[in-house]
Amino acid sequence: MVDAGCEDRVMFGTDELIWPGLMRYSVGIIQNADYLSREQKRDILYNNAARFLWLTPVRAG
Q: Is the pTM of this model over 0.85?
């Protein structure tokens, strides 16, 4: 999706409730992805959903 220029449409989400440690692992995969910039990771993990839900996005800093 990132290679196609759609990183502004990808949102992280899970319905994982049975194995709580799996969410930390899943977020870690995105945080440790060398092919994503810091801004892309922030967008996927928060800003895209914030924009979709009309919340305030996190500013780069």
A: no
State how far the Cα of 16 lies from the Cα of 57, in Å rounded to an integer.
Answer: 24
User: DSSP string covering the chain, please?
Assistant: -TTTT-GGG--------S-THHHHHHHHHHHT-TTS-HHHHHIIIIIHHHHHTTPPPPPP-
In this predicted structure, what is the pLDDT of residue 14?
81
pLDDT of residue 16: 72
pLDDT of residue 44: 93
Structure-token pair, residue 41: 């990771």
- State both tokens at 20: 């709580």
